[in-house]
Amino acid sequence: MQLINGITLLLIYQLAGEVSVRLLGLPVPGPVMGMVMLFITLMIRGQMAKAVEPACTALLGHLSLLFVPAGVGLIVHFNRLGNEWLPISVTLLLSTIITMAVTALVMQWVTRLTARREPNHD
Amino acid sequence: MIEPDLNRIWVYLSASPLLGLTMTLVAYSLAHRLYIRSDSNPLLNPVVTSVTALILFLLATDTSYDDYFDGAQFVHFLLGPATVALAIPLYQQFNKLKQVWLPVTVALVTGVVVGAFSSVAVARLLGASLETQLSLAPKSVTAPVGMAISEQIGGLPSLTAALVVVTGIIGAVIGSKLFDLIGIRDDSVKGIAMGMTSHGIGTARAFQVSAQMGAFSGLAMALSAFLYSVFLPWLLSITGVLG
C-alpha cells in the first residue's frame, strides 16, 4: 500500500505542476514544477518523506529502463541520422566531454577557492 | 494448419499494447543481467543493449515504432513521476548541499551555458540543419524535460529524446576515464558533473560507484533540469540562435 500511496502522491504533484505551469504560463515543464513543489513540501513537512520514499527509490532505482522507449525512437529518425550522422555524433561526443570536464573543473576550482577563504572567516 | 494460426496470433499481438510493453521489460531485464554478468562493463550499458535489441526486433518483424510505442508508452510515462521523485534526493542531500551551494551553483550555471552552446556551435560548424541543432541543445537534460524544451525552441521532441539517451550513455561510458584524466578525485564533484551532463543514465551509473556520487548526480540532474528549462529558451533567443 505504501508504494501505491507514494506513486499516487507523485502523480498528484505532477498534475499540480502541469496545471500551475499552464495557469501561470511558466517556462518550466510540469514535472519539474511538480518536483519543486514536492521539494518545498518536504522542507516544510519532513515527515512526508517517509510516505513517498519507497516509490521514489523504486522509480529512481530503475531510471535507465524508463529511457528505453525513447531510445528505440531512434528508428524513426534513421533518415536524418543517415544524412547528418557526422555532425550529430561528433557533437554528442565533443559537447558531452567538454560539458562534463568544464562542470567538474569549475566546481573543483570554486570549492578550493571557497575552502581557502574559510579559515580567515573563522 | 499451424501457420494460419501463428499468423492470427501475430496479427492480434502486433495490434495490442501487450507486446510492446512486454518486449521492453524482457529486453531490459535480459540486458541488465548481461551487464551484471560482465562486471558492469560500461560498454554493455543496459540501455544500449536493450535499445539495440528492440530496434533489431522491430526491423526484423516489420513493426512500426507507433505500434511498439502503444505498449512502451506505459514505461515512458513513468519519466514524469520519476522527475517529481528527484525531490527526494534533493531533500535528503540538502544539508550537504547547503555547505557546497556556491561551487555547485557556479558549476551548474556554467554547465548549462557550455552544454547548450557547445552542442549548437559544433553542430552548426559541421553543417547540421537548424532543426537538428535545436534538437541537440537540450541533449543533457532528462528525457521528459528535454522533450518539452525541444518542442518549445523548435526542435523535434522525439529526436531530442533519442539524443538524450545517447548523450546519457556516452557520459556513463566515458565519465570515470575522463575524471581520472583531468584529475578529479572528489565523488561529489564527479557526481555533479555526471548528473549535469548525463542525467538519469549517468546517475544510474554514478550510484554504482558510490552513494555519494549517485546522490550528487541526482541532485545535479534535478537542478540542471530546472536551470535548463528556465534559461535555455532565453539564452538561445538573446544570442540570436533562435530567429
From TrEMBL, chain A:
Query: Any coiled-coil ranges, and where?
Result: none
GO CC, one annotated term: plasma membrane
**Subcellular location, principal:** membrane
Q: Keywords of this protein's UniProt record, alphabetized? A: Cell membrane, Hydrolase, Membrane, Transmembrane, Transmembrane helix
- In terms of superkingdom, the source organism counts as Bacteria
Q: Name one Pfam family in it.
A: LrgA
A single Gene Ontology molecular function, please? hydrolase activity
Q: Where in the cell is it found?
A: Cell membrane
**Name by which UniProt lists this protein:** Murein hydrolase transporter LrgA
Species: Marinobacter psychrophilus
Q: What is the lineage of its organism?
A: Bacteria, Pseudomonadati, Pseudomonadota, Gammaproteobacteria, Pseudomonadales
UniProtKB/TrEMBL annotation, chain B:
Query: Which keywords fit this entry according to its UniProt record?
Result: Membrane, Transmembrane, Transmembrane helix
The membrane-topology field of this record reads: Multi-pass membrane protein
Task: Report the superkingdom from the record.
Answer: Bacteria
GO cellular component annotations of the record: membrane
Annotated compartments: Membrane
- Write down the InterPro entries for this protein, in alphabetical order: CidB/LrgB
Q: Which organism is it from?
A: Marinobacter psychrophilus
Residue ranges annotated as transmembrane are 12-31, 43-61, 73-91, 100-126, 156-175, 215-236
What is the name listed in the Swiss-Prot or TrEMBL entry for this protein?
Membrane protein
